[in-house]
Amino acid sequence: MLFCEVVDASLNAGVEEIHAVPSIAAYDRNDASSFVRVRSEDLEDVVMENDEHFQQLKIYTNERPSEHGSLLHNGVVDVALIDSPGLNRDSLKTTQLFARQEEIDVVVFVVNAENHFTLSGQDFLLNAGNEKAHIFIVVNRFDAIRRRDRCERMVLDQIRDLSPLTYAERSDLVHFVSAHEQLAGGSAAFARMEHCLRSFTLEQRFKSKLAPAQRYTSNVLHDVCFLAAENVGAATRRIQEINSVLRDNMPRYEALLEQRTDASQWAEHVLDSGCAEVRRHTAAHLATTQLHLQDAADKVAYGGLLALWTYAENVLLAIVRHVEHEVAECDRFACFTIQHA
């Protein structure tokens, strides 16, 4: 099975051709040695068998006229349609193709109405939904279904679970068609599918280009909101714990405040009492000392008239020593009073 890339023939000088490419990296449409031309009648055999191990088919074609204009060459942007082998035929190659998501505008997922979504298809849609919020889904062979309403309901139920945003716009993104009816003579459902695909690819191209960025930003925002909510919850719990501790310890704190007030008042009372006692004792003691200054002077021996100056100095020194002794005594009393208050 091969990948088929369908592009407008204007990219090949207007010539409709099919190029089988052995090496995509070396391919150049102007270099005939880099590809092999394939006849249209041999296209199916080359795609199915690929005996020469081509990597890809480049199909240059002129799109049939349509009242809505060309999809491949529309004057706005050149569109390339890449047809993968399919998940049931080569899921590895199809998944590798989808890995080039930044180059893909629209994912068109074609499913058989008789089989619905296989497990590989469900896995693919889940992975695709992580990057492409909107996926264009075509349910083919709808004409072979007898109970079409039941089939449509079952398919939409699966899409709702696999791609909720696609399901939300199912009228434009999910189509039930029949290729056989289209080839036989035309189908209104097929024409509407083409119109919606053209609209989704061109008019609403911002969805395919910007939706991944929007989805990524939304996911980041969701994660940030989740982390913020967790942090708010943790902070709230911490605040509640702190408030609980404060409530439990508030009576003790208030008791300590009362004890501090009582202790302050008691200390002021002791200080005032001590100061008053020291002041009273000092005043009384110094008054008594003043009365006994003469006794200190009388203890100095008089040496006669010639030693009068020496006598006066000795009397002064005796009085000073006596006063210093009494002041020291008052100081000792003050220290004793403070220590035993």
Characteristics of this structure?
341 residues; alpha/beta; five-stranded mixed β-sheet; 8 strands; rod-shaped
What does this structure look like?
The protein has 341 residues and is of the alpha/beta class. The protein has 11 helices and 8 strands. The radius of gyration is 52 Å and the shape is rod-shaped. The mean pLDDT is 83.
Brief synopsis:
The chain has 341 residues and is an alpha/beta fold. The chain is 59% helix and 10% strand.
Q: Approximately how much helix is present in the residues?
A: 55-70%
Radius of gyration: 52 Å
> How are helices and strands ordered from N to C?
EEEHEEHEHEHHHEHHHHH
Major sheet: 5 strands, mixed
Shape: rod-shaped
Question: What is the SS-derived class?
Answer: alpha/beta
- Poorly predicted runs: none
Strand content: 5-15%
Kindly report how far apart the N and C termini lie: 108 Å
- How many strands? 8
What average pLDDT do the residues reach? Answer: 83
The largest beta-sheet arranges its strands as 3-2-4-1-5
Number of helices: 11
